[in-house]
Amino acid sequence: MNKKIKKAVVLSSGGLDSTTTLAIAIKEGYECYSLSFFYGQRHKFELTAAKKITEKFDVKQHLVLNLDLDRIGGSSLTDDMDVPKNKNLKEMSNGIPTTYVPARNTIFLSCALAWGEVLGASDIFIGVNAVDYSGYPDCRPEYIAAFEKMANLALKSTVEKKISIRIRTPLLHMSKADIIRTGIDLGIDYSITHSCYDPDAKGLACGMCDSCLLRKKGFNDAGIKDPTIYVNQCR
Amino acid sequence: MNKKIKKAVVLSSGGLDSTTTLAIAIKEGYECYSLSFFYGQRHKFELTAAKKITEKFDVKQHLVLNLDLDRIGGSSLTDDMDVPKNKNLKEMSNGIPTTYVPARNTIFLSCALAWGEVLGASDIFIGVNAVDYSGYPDCRPEYIAAFEKMANLALKSTVEKKISIRIRTPLLHMSKADIIRTGIDLGIDYSITHSCYDPDAKGLACGMCDSCLLRKKGFNDAGIKDPTIYVNQCR
Q1: Residue B1: its pLDDT value, please?
Q2: Phi, psi at A63, each rounded to 5°
Q3: Between β-strands B59-66 and B123-125, what pairing exists: parallel, antiparallel or unpaired?
Q4: pTM of the entire structure?
Q5: Fewer CB atoms near the end CB (10 Å): N or C, chain A?
Q6: Is the CB of A137 inside 8 Å of chain B's CB atoms?
Q7: Cα A82 to Cα B32: distance, rounded to the nearest angstrom
Q8: B228 three-class SS
Q9: In chain B, which residues have pLDDT < 70?
């Protein structure tokens, strides 16, 4: 029997969430195509992690697109601006932090639509989470729903072949601890993932940026040892 | 009186439509920031045209972003594939032609959102047209409306400052002839614009691709001499 191959594009940052999302997509039986971006981010070590992850998983192809978003700026991830650091999550400031990158998920999802159309993949997986997150607007369910609606009007395949695009967000309503538990069950070795926004020259995680704090909290809440090596080991 | 500056990002391909859109935005009193893309297109002469246009107009800044969409492919504008040529518009095939670039407007508009947010520009102008066009899905009014809705959920500025993003499409329901008449009234010298999808090595327009045929039809219908130099001068 010639079973039809289900294809998916998975946005892969090399971090904890996108890696878990990739493992879920593979578990669901998709042939996965992972998409990463070099967009001028200071934490480009995530791309090394993304590469390692796609090698470890059964990923059909890994594409790293180049886009010079650092020329647009507006974020402490791309500009010469300090990444906010705190000792714990309680000290995190209210509001959307400076690590927000303008329209990042919109740009990444748009490129995923393009690649998906060429590949014949109608499912796009993205590891957004609206529970243990930094408050980025483009991680919220209402944003994802609006993007999906737009996507279904944007593409030749949606018009000519009546293909429905689905933006898949399996982590959307999960806590970070649940994400980690799910990933462990799926056999992820989280030591190869990279979450830190501001690693040192060797790629060691700072342990104090929002992303590190959320990661630490997740492992702590899940009761699982965090395999990350932090630069100050201040866990 | 310190009049508040209205800022707009204008997507500028160097072609007839986007140049007219830019002239309209300037006429409306916007401080304009034009955005172009080098995305691996074969007709990169359009970027030279876009540069000339921004120099001619009162554009505050012209940004050319690099994005390697040719690695995604799926279009005769980026792939090693013939651009469809015909003697006249009647011979144009039905359906969406191979010059369609997957998710192009979605990607371009997404980057415009990002730059607009950094600049404090809530209006994004794009020269899409749903009358004399190639049937691209991402030029239709329903697509633009859905993109705008999504945009208003995507950005920090829409959440924290309650700013409304407007996707401005002044040409949407105009014929090509009306666009040209409008542009002439606004003082555009169309000889510096570039529409051709498949120019020769010197940048001369082929005169037979959809874009050339639509351009020719526009000048013809408007009763205005087309200043374009076509490679075969087969007007």
Answers
A1: 47
A2: -115, 130
A3: unpaired
A4: 0.95
A5: N
A6: yes
A7: 30
A8: coil
A9: 1-3, 233-235
